[in-house]
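Sanity check

After download, print the first record. It should look like this:
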Amino acid sequence: MDSVERHVDIDAPPERVWELLTRPGWFVNDGEIVAHDVEELDDGVHLVTDPVHGSFRVERVALEPHTRAAFRRHRGTGADDPATLVEFHLEERPGGVRLTVVESGLQALGTGRRLHEQQARGWSEGLATARAHTEPARVRCAVHVPVEPGPAWDVVTDLASWYAFGGAVYTLEQGAPMRLEWAEHGIHLGTVERVDAPSEFAFRLAREPDLEPDEDAPLVRVTVRASGTGSLVVVEHTGLTTADDTTVERLGWEGGLTTLAERLREKR
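Expected structure tokens:
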């Protein structure tokens, strides 16, 4: 009952998964990986603040590139607060890696089967999230915003205000045509696939400028749900075919979500 071990297979190169593993406290979240406020207290010691779970102390124990990363995660901000050891192991496999996590020292948090089952369930969900955010065939990114889903929805569905800066023309109706424009990327045509206010907005975009999308065009799904005292906005872009496409789209969506959060802070 003092430790939990879970693993997941990820179809991604070790370098990509390693980049996630070395982010202080990435594994504390509300089901999606979001940017944390991170303050470096000392070499390898960070104060991490999550918008839902608050602040906690993370101490680096070991970094063995692309093989093992270990951290001591405190349940508070002080060095004397209860802590567990969290170890991540990467093992290469055909087509990707196997990511294993071992969390030990659970007795420092209390005893009992309920705690053990809670941590086991949490790590199963956490590793699934890591896979979703690192596999190269899709982009998945998220941001926590300080407003409830209803008010957030109006801004999220106004793509011209935070994503398609050259303009966006569409109606929020299934099957409606879309026209998104960027000065550097041209005009991309699309189709609205699903609208379920205030929680989901999905659409397809043609791979190349000025072409009509077909049924195999990449799919973008934007979801909004309550999280803590605000909302979690998640973008998942699937159907990408090359690593370069994934990199470009990831940078675009991450920048867009940063702008979205700024817009919603102004709206608050």
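If your output differs, re-run the checksum step. Summary of this record's structure: The domain at 139-267 is CATH 3.30.530.20 (Alpha-D-Glucose-1,6-Bisphosphate; Chain A, domain 4).
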